[in-house]
Amino acid sequence: MSLYQDLADRTARLIADGVLRPGDRLPSIRQTCRSNAISPVTVTQAYQLLEQRGLIEARPKSGYFVRARLGSSLPEPDMTHPVGGSTALQVSDFIFQILDSVRDPAVVPLGSSFPSPHLFPLDKLGRFLASAARRLDPLATVTDLPPGNEALRRQLALRYLAHGASVSPQEIIVTSGALEGINLCLQALTQPGDLIAVESPTFYAGLQASERLGLRVIEIPSHPREGVNLAALADTLRHHPVKACLFMLNFANPTGSRVSDDNKRALIELLHTHQVPLIEDDVYAELHFDASAPLCSKAVDHDGLVLHVSSFSKCLAPGYRLGWVAAGRYAQAVQRQKYATSLATTVPVQIAVAEYLKHGGFDLHLRRLRQQLATQERQLVADIEALFPAGTRLARPGGGYFVWLELPGHVDTLRLHEDALARRISIAPGPLFSAKREFSHYLRLNFGHPANAQQRDALATLGDLIRNQS
């Protein structure tokens, strides 16, 4: 990392931790040069980067000051309180009905589950893919069967190591995206009729996978900033025969919540006590806005209970359908499920991404992507603050590309979805994320697409529709 990026990240951390507060004046360029033994150009570049991130502002003849955090006038939603008891799932028809409605590219994609493809180095990836296809060793069609391409698994193991986790390439199974990974883990751990624990709200794909396998779910309360409630989870594990937990601990979909590092350690210890495995859907971990990444759960998993599922779809290669599971003690069971279902993941794609990770500048791409998403988040929040009615609550994420909104209690977001879609605007209504179709006055919005006039007009229209619902 360059000197100016390091200075910017250290200053951003001081702002995030509250050491530097809104309105505080930053040390002058001259002071910072002296205290850090760096040049004025380096300090200026660092402060300009912080300006681009929206964290500070320059005031003529006065210096640089910490900006007020946008969205500070909007309170966050409360802890969820799902209806007790387990649920036999019947969600797929409802989910497909919603998803089919947002595939039109002419629709403003506020309800999309995907970021803009223009944020990713697809041209560069394409060159790696073309090279991999040209140089493909015919034996790779056999040697790269599950658990997958050895070079790719080694690169993944190195990334785990950089996050403080010792993960052997032998426990990594390459999959066709994270969703296949979740399905393989559920198949390896459960039988029809078994009970699994999920967050409330939760990502609908996990509900679909559980329904397909004939599982029951019990919904655990969660906080829109702090994630799954550990006390409620502990009570559930004491009183119910939970076979596995399916959670997002980092920038959860839909809420954007992040379980703190301390709570993550406590969660892993709790699951260790009950010997209940965790399937962690961790596709957004690389999209953190803070200077440092969240704690990797595999770094504190000392008995192989964590099945860590991730992919490159959200951080590098949308459409390539390349994911993996670091399956701990369950690696062999997951690998056998992979053999029994899709057999293998596309070999040239595995080789191409392995080469990109080694030579393509992945970390540089990630820094740029995080900055862009953080900028887009601030713009979306500012527009919501300006255009949505009183009574709106908003959970600020620390990463990913979703915000979770609670609207005034009389609003029906299923009806809002229909009214918005008639105006070529998509949203993701709250009931989409609940086994019992709760959260009727909540919605998820996507800030993964660069802000423009069309998006702001769409948000203004949504604000009017919300006000006019009776």
From TrEMBL:
Superkingdom in the source lineage: Bacteria
Listed CDD domains: AAT_like (cd00609), WHTH_GntR (cd07377)
Keywords: Aminotransferase, DNA-binding, Pyridoxal phosphate, Transcription, Transcription regulation, Transferase
Pfam family, one: Aminotran_1_2
Keyword Chaperone found: no
Domain spans labelled HTH gntR-type: 1-69
Alphabetized SMART domains for the sequence: HTH_GNTR (SM00345)
GO molecular function annotation: DNA binding; DNA-binding transcription factor activity; pyridoxal phosphate binding; transaminase activity
Coiled coil: none
Family, as annotated: In the C-terminal section; belongs to the class-I pyridoxal-phosphate-dependent aminotransferase family.
Name used for this protein in its record: PLP-dependent aminotransferase family protein
Naturally occurring in which organism (per UniProt): Parazoarcus communis SWub3 = DSM 12120
